[in-house]
Each structure stands twice: as structure tokens, then as C-alpha cells.
Request: fold
Amino acid sequence: MENKKLAVLIDSDNTQYSKLSLIIQELSGYGQIVVKRAYGDFSSEHLKNWKTPLNEMAIQPRQQFAYTVGKNSTDSTMIIDAMDLLYTDRFDAFALVTSDSDFTSLATRLRESEIEVIGVGKTTTPVSFKNACDDFIAIENLEDPSENIEEKLTLSQDLERELWRLMHQAWQNYRDDSGWAKLGEIGSYLKRIKSDFDTRNYGLKKLSDFFDLHSSRYRTRTSKNNGLEVKLITKASTDKS
Reply:
């Protein structure tokens, strides 16, 4: 598989500098990061702690002084840079690291040019921006798994019903005549209908973990041609393969 070339653009005003290392590590899994840029007024008190992590991770700072007190001029600079990079035809994907819905139009424009858009932001990021991305990664999911265990368990219980609904819907859409569905197609479908779908939101490391945990309801098998497949176990089912 061809290695994708990524441009990573970071809205520093809406991102925690302490999460930069985890963000870059996560995005590296999508391909080769060619450009890493962070945007903001780094002379301000708000961004005074960014210098060290930017230097350590070789992220290019794009200094933008505020033209007017209380107004954010960072957004326009980041958008202009994104369009300049788009027109070079060098990149397969753009990662927009922000929790600001003002970048929704930018994400939409990049996708119209058939460029993959990966959003990275807080879980509270407006749904408009999430849906404008092909994939959205919640920064909270990039925390050390040993942290906030009780909170994550409570969250997974709250979202359990939603997860069951999504899985059943995906299985129904992609099952063949004998009731088997390819796990790869299920995963792709879930991302298309819910760009911020992430198994870590539900306390799972990978998608197949769901079916392993619920083996009394779903049967799995490995096919040479299709990889892992899943099937809902029903009273009417007589397939024992």
C-alpha cells in the first residue's frame, strides 16, 4: 500500500501543547508527515509554553500577531496556507488539529478536491466540523490508558446502547445471503456515517474486540479472501460453520 503524504496544520489557540506528542504519534499511523505547522501568536501569554514542544518535535511555528485585541487572526493564515499546500498537489491527506468549527468550510473544500481530511480535536468539537472530516480523532482518546479509568468505564456504559445499534445497523447493511459480513466493510461504513467513530470511545482497543466480548450474540470466522467476518446469532440460524 502506497504511503500517504500528510500535511499537519495545528490551530494552537484551540489545542493543548501537552498533547502534541500524542497527536503527532497518532497521525504518523496514517502515513508520512511531510509538513508540520502550528499557527498562533506565540508572543502572547496564552501560548508562552509552546516553544519547547515545537522545537522538540520539529513543528514549524507560523507566528501571527493579533491585528486587533480580542480578535483571532490565526484562522485566516492557516486557511491560506492550507490552500497553498493543496495547489502543490503533493499531499494525499490534511490533518487539521483544532476544536474550532470555523475550519468546517476548509475541511469541506479540501474534501471537494478529493483530499482526505483528518480532524483532531476535543470531544466537544462542534459536530459540523466533525462531519466535514473523513475521520475525526478525539484528543481525549490519546491519553494514557491508565488514566481516568473510572471515567472511561462510566462513559462506555453510557454509550453501550449506541454501539450495539451501530454494529447491528452495519451488519444488516453488509451481510451476504448466508448472513456473514466482512469486518473491514463494517469499519469503513461506521466511519462514513460517524466520522468521529473510534472504538476507544467505547473502551475497546480494536473493532474485533466488540464481537469477542459478545460471542453469545455474534459469531466470527477468518476467511482467506475476506479476512475476519462476523454473523449475528439468531434463533433461526442453523449455520454452524
Observations:
- Residues 235-241 have pLDDT under 50 and may be disordered.
- The beta strands are 5-11, 32-40, 60-63, 93-97, 116-121, 135-138, 181-182, 218-223, 227-232.
- DSSP finds eight helices and nine strands in the chain.
- Helices lie at 20-27, 51-56, 74-86, 104-112, 127-132, 149-174, 183-193, 208-213.
